[in-house]
Amino acid sequence: MGSFNWRKEFSIGVDEMDKQHMELVRIINDIHQAINEGRGKERLGGMLDRLLKYTDYHFAAEEKLMKKHRYPPYEEHKGKHAAMRKKVLSLIRESSGGREAMIYSVLDFLQGWLTKHIMETDRKYANYLNDN
Ligand SMILES: [Fe+2]
Prior knowledge:
This protein is mainly alpha-helical. The protein has a single domain (13-131), classed as Four Helix Bundle (Hemerythrin (Met), subunit A), CATH 1.20.120. The chain is built from four helices and no strands. The protein binds fe (ii) ion. The site of fe (ii) ion has 6 residues, from α3 and α4.
């Protein structure tokens, strides 16, 4: 299975947040690697826990930044974070059942979500911050 790597287009021009997004990409890519080593199933739960902890840290940092700069769609953005957190929690619950096929749909979801969130939702607040 392929890997998920940082791409130039992911950069939103806010250094600290770019760094944190890089870490999220790394965590997702570690799941790829575990699968390639044949250890996906055994390690998925632990990796999703790690992802949850880091997203909590990252979302809080982003929300603090948006709030500080009075970003108008703050609540909407915060709502997207809350929905994602809920989804990761439900993935953690489901993954303890441990179907192999599930790992692929988890990866697919995480990559799709992160790519879209960074390139659309996060870019909007970054543009706002950089313009104000
Ligand atoms: Fe965000």
